[in-house]
Structures are given as structure tokens and as C-alpha cells.
Amino acid sequence: MRPHFSFGSLRSDHIAGATFVVFAVVVFALSGDLPFGTLSSPGAGMMPKLLLVLMIVFGVALVIGGAASQPFADIEWSDGAHALMVVAIAGIAITFYQTLGFILTMTLLVFTLLIVVERKPLLNAAAYSIGLTMLAWWLFGKALKSPLETGILGF
Amino acid sequence: MGVTLDSLWLGFSVALQPAVLWYAFLGCLVGTLVGVLPGIGPLAGISILLPITFGLNATNAIVMLAGIYYGSQYGGSTTSILLRIPGEASSVMTCIDGNAMARKGRAGAALCIAAVGSWIAGTFGVIVLTFIAPPLATIALKFGPPEYTALLVLGLVFLAYMSTTSLSRTLLMAAFGLMLGCIGIDPLSGHFRYSFDIAELGDGIGIVPVAVGLFGLGEILSTPSHQVTGEVIRPKLRELWPNAKEWRESGWPIARGTVMGFLIGIIPGSAHIISSFLSYAVEKKISKHPEEFGQGAVAGVAGPESANNAASTGAFVPMLALGIPTGPVTAVLMAALMIHGVPPGPSLVNDHPEVFWGFVASMYVGNVMLLALNLPLVGIFVHLLRIPYAYLYPLIIMFCVIGVYEVAHSIVDVWIMLIMGVVGYALKKFSFDPAPLVLGLVIAPIFEMSLRQSLIMSNGNWTIFMTRPIAGTLMAAAAVMLAMSAFSAFMARRDWRAQMAEEVKE
Fold this sequence. Notes:
- By secondary structure, chain A is mainly alpha-helical.
- Chain A is 63% helix and 0% strand.
- In chain A, helix 1 packs antiparallel against helix 2.
- The radius of gyration of chain A is 24 Å and the shape is flat.
- Chain B is built from 22 helices and two strands.
- Chain B is mostly helical.
- Chain B has one domain.
- Chain B has helices at residues 2-15, 18-36, 42-49, 58-83, 92-140, 145-162, 167-181, 207-221, 244-265, 271-286, 299-314, 316-322, 328-339, 348-351, 353-374, 378-385, 389-408, 411-429, 435-457, 464-467, 469-491, 496-505; strands spanning 184-185, 192-193.
- Chain B has a two-stranded antiparallel ribbon with strand order 1-2.
- Chains A and B meet through helix 1, helix 2, helix 3, helix 4 and helix 5 of A and helix 7, helix 8, helix 17, helix 18 and helix 19 of B.
């Protein structure tokens, strides 16, 4: 009788353990040129390679003992859309931070989060983002004298 | 004893200077605010203010930054009690019974017990720190690379033992964290490791972007605003004083939590989080009315709050006396000291007595300030908590970006923060505890250096860790703890740690 496998039988530890094993194997492959050295003269590669082996061992242990963990299908992903949007907006802001400068970038970051993710009214979002950024600019840039990034527009 | 008291007198002469008092107050205030606001922890608060301290002297800088750390332990209880959302990771246990007390109309009493317990624990911790740190620093002069290696191994194993998740999960996270700590230039041979030709990665991955990403951004990613619907309970000022029964019920839990928290705090690990969990478990176990836990038991607030404050003070002992960080916060504090040319470790007490004793004395003052701040200003904190979460988390994201970027003006750090935020989100989904990862990252440089130095000293002989008395003792303790952890896992018994994990999930 053939063993029955379905994605429904997958547990979270199976996925997590396998992910760490694959990650560790890939990084191990990238570590090829790091010298392992000897016990009396450990090289730059000794510690990372030992740790990667440990990660593989623990990852396999997770996979083997994975039946006790919760089913993968039971993991709640309803916050996934929120997370994706926040990451995308933050990523764009970080990309342009050094070009546009602190004031413009932070204002646009907060504004976009409030409009796109939170669906707040335009006026409220604009007032809050401008006010908050100016407060932060004054607090860090003027009161605490922490140098803030200036963009190509001069502010 | 006389020498210690004379030194403490010197410390107070430093700590009571107006400038030092001002920075202690600033640190305590920011720390309380950081503790009150969910999503932003002491690490983010310290990171944001770290660049500002570059223009200060070492004493003022460390006093302010440390004030943020132990101040956040006070502030975290406010949100836990009034909103049932932990303001800070170590305040998770206070949510359970603290909010239950609030719903019974005893919010003020809960806040007062938490504040007083925190003050007692913090003051006790500072007193013990005063008398333990100098002799420990003397003993630490006998520490060599094998002893440091053994101590760090003990810390990792202790964390694994105390963790509420499985042994393999905890050790996997610790190995991952140690692995992240290997990124950058190898200090012994000069090889570039996993830097992928990115110049900024040559210095390695910083603790600040990783911790802020994992704990700050990761939390925000997994919390859409529509899920945050807590009603803020507003206590009246006249209701702040507990009654006689509540004082009686809080006495012994405060005492036990204080001692337990301090002892846990001195061991490397996420001490302040573990200490509150452990205190709650102990109080519930020995209580004559365990059924009251979860329904507003005073001991369920008094014990954990005292424990986390004592642990945060205890964490300074290895940091100052041994130069070993016990977690990400103390690691950043150590970095702050080194930036100011004051290397923490066994020589700190003798070479920079005004910094050491000034810092210790400021903690006595800081604890009094926090007691005064937390109770009368609770009304202001309530208003702060009323800011809708939809407007609060963009503010937190902005502060996280500012804090991470300002440390080294590196955009790569901000990208690392974002990536670690995604990692933190994923880890939460798969029920991994990120604390061992951060601890691994924090201790990786010291651990690898001391391990390799030990092997060079012994010409490759691993028994050096067993033949030296101090190292051997520490390794034996680690082995016992590992065996106990493995035994529990093998027997698949629901021991007190697994029970705690289930209670927290509920």
C-alpha cells in the first residue's frame, strides 16, 4: 500500500525545520573558500561551519519531531496583506531616504501608511504626517542636535 | 565594606550633580514612555537616543541610557494593567492578573503595587550590585578565554532550559544568531565572511537593527490595527492606594520576585523576560489559592513586576564587572561605554571609579524618580494610550528608522532592520522565540574569540574547558542543565515551562 501524503498533513515544524536545513546547506556551500583550520589553529571558517552543521542537525530534529506541532494549514495568515503593504511602503521609503531626505521621506512614509494601509481620510492623514514629521525633525534635529538626512531639495 | 561605602559616597557626589540628575530624569522619563507604548521597547528607545549621547561625557551618557532600560520596566506595567497589552516584553505576565484587577475596579491598586514592587526590587538590586560588582571584578581578573567561553555556554544553555519552547527550537535560534554574528571581518585572520562585497557588512551585523527589526517591526507587521481594540481603563488618583489585604498579599511575592529576578538577571540570557515568567509560575505553585491566578491575584502582579526590575538591575553585574553583555540592551550599553572610551569589564571599577560609582549611585536616585513619575503621571499615560493604534504604529516605524539610521548613518542597517522585521514576522507565525537569536548575535564576537583563543592556548585540546576549575564548574553546570532539558523533552512531559507557554498563549 503506498504511503499517503497530502499537504494537509504538513506541520509547521516540518516547513520550518526544512527551511532552516536548506538555508544552512546553501550558506555552507557559500562558505567553501573560508579556511577551517585545525583545532590548534582554528580558521575563519571553523565557527560558521560548525554552527551551520548544528543548524542542520536541529533543523532535522524539528522535522522528525514535527508531528507534535500545529498543522501548517492552521497558521493564521490574515495579517499577511497588512504585513506585505507595510514592508513594501517601508522598503520604498528606505530606498529614497538618502535622496529625498528626512522630512520628505518620513512625511510620505506616514502619509502612505495612513492612506493605503489604514484608509484614513486624506486631510487627517496629511495633517498628522506633516505634524508628526515636523515634531520629530524639531526634537531630533534641533533639540537633541542629532544630524538628520538632507535630500537633494536642500531640506 | 568601608571602602565600598566610601566609593558609594563618591558616586553620590557625582550622581547628585545637576547635570547627572537631569540626564537620569530624562532617561527615566523616556524609559517610562517607551515602556508604556506598545511596539517600542527599551532597545529602540536606547538606540534612538544613543547618537545624541556622543556629545555627552561617559557618566551622563550611561546614566541616561540605563535610565531608559530600567525605566521601561516600570512603564511596561501601565499598559499591561490598563490595556491588557504588554508595553514591554517582560510585562506579559502582568497582563493576566493586572488587567483582571483593573476590571474589578482595582486598577489603581495594581499600578501602585507594580510601582512599589518595582522600586523595592530595583533598590535591592542596586544595593547588591554595589557590594557584589567590585569583588566580582577582582575574581574576573582570573578569567581567561576558557572561563569566558564556559560562562557564555552556560548562558545559552540556561536560556534554552528556561525557554517555554522546545530545546531544539531554542538551540536552533541560538545557532542562527551566532551564525549572524559571524558576518563581517574575522578579527583573528582578517578574512571577510559573508559580506558579499558590501562594505558596511565588513563590520558585521549590528545588534540594534536586528533587535529593533525582530521585536519592533516584527510586532507591527503581525498586528493590523483592527486587531487592537483594547479598552483603556482609567483609574482615579484617589484609588491608587491598595488596601491592607492587598499590601499583605503582595509582601512575600515582592520579596521572592526580587531575589529570584536578581539571581536570574546576572546570568546571560533574556533575563528580564524569563524572570517574570518564573516568578509567576512560582507564585502560582506555592499559593494557597492558585485558582485566583488569572482572576486578579495580587501576587500575579507583585511577583513578576518585582522580578523583571530586579533582573534588569542584575544584568548590570556581568556587564560592569565582567564586560559580558547579558542581552541586546546591555550590549548596546556596553557599546555606548566603549564609544566614550570607557571599556566595561574588571578594570572599570579601578580605572574609572567616578563612572562606575556615579552610575551605581544614579540608579538609587533613578528608582526614586521612577516611583514619583509612574503613579502621579498615570493620567497622562492613559491619554497616551488612547492614541489609536492606526496612528501609533506609523510613529513607531518612523522612530525605529531614525534610531537605527542615526547609530552609524548606514542605510544598510535600515535594510537589515526591515529584513529582520520580516524574519521576526515569520518566526512568530511558526512560534519561534527570537530572544535566543538576539542573544546569539550579541555574544557571538566574544564567544568565537574566546573559543578560538582557548584552543590556541591548549594547542587544540578541548579538555581545557574541563581542567581549569572555574571553566570546569561552569561547563558542568551547563551540562546538568542541558541534561535536565533533554530529559524533559524526551519524556514529553508537560513541565512548568510548557504550562506557562500555554497560559501566556491564552
